[in-house]
Amino acid sequence: MKALSFFTILFFMSVQTMAQSFNGNFEGTANGIAASAFLQVAGNTVTGNISINGRPGKVNASYQNNYCEGNLYDIQMQKNYSFNGAINRDTLLFRVTFPELNNQVVQLVMLRLKPVKIPAGAQLSNALIGLWRYTETFSSGSGDNYASFSTDYFMEFKADGTVLSWTGKSAGSAGGQNIEGSASSAEKAHWFTEGKTLYLVDPVNSKKSSLLFYAEANRIMLHNGGKEKKIMIRVQ
Description:
By secondary structure, the chain is mostly beta strands. 4% of the residues lie in helices and 60% in strands. It has 1 helix and 17 strands. The strands form 2 sheets. The chain has an 8-stranded antiparallel β-barrel. An 8-stranded antiparallel β-barrel has the order 9-10-11-13-14-15-16-17.
């Protein structure tokens, strides 16, 4: 197993001087690895979401004072990896062990992010609340070489300020064969509106993005201010 770096030794020594909460949003890049995490503490358990170089995962660990130890679940690989971590003031360190890499230990270093401040005038537009679907269709070729595919994307804006998004079933045909995929797990974010601007807040890294929206009774158009527009149809 790889020896601890001098930085890691100093870090674990220093956490003994100050207890800090694992609660919060964290983000950082170290050794070319970008990571972000949204963690919550309940009792002596730390749970939450984590992203490592864009790959999503789940954290489940027990903690005592400034240390935690448990499993990191890779959603894409559907596999658990053991890790331990520590927090010192606003710096979070995770050390993840990868058995398939000869038990190599990868260090993730993240800094606590300040909570996103929602403006006083922010509202939740009633016109957006509900379940919406956007269908994307691709086609190519002709005759026996013709192929077409369509995929449904869903967004559900809730009255409590959360929004869920997921990919539904994909259906298509190519060379006389039908292809159908199953729905993926929903991703969660927060939302609010100011006038005709929709803001989405990532719960993992607290980053905020915005879109213009135009709403009718049974459809909405989301517009990025450029050429890209998406029209979604109300499902319920």
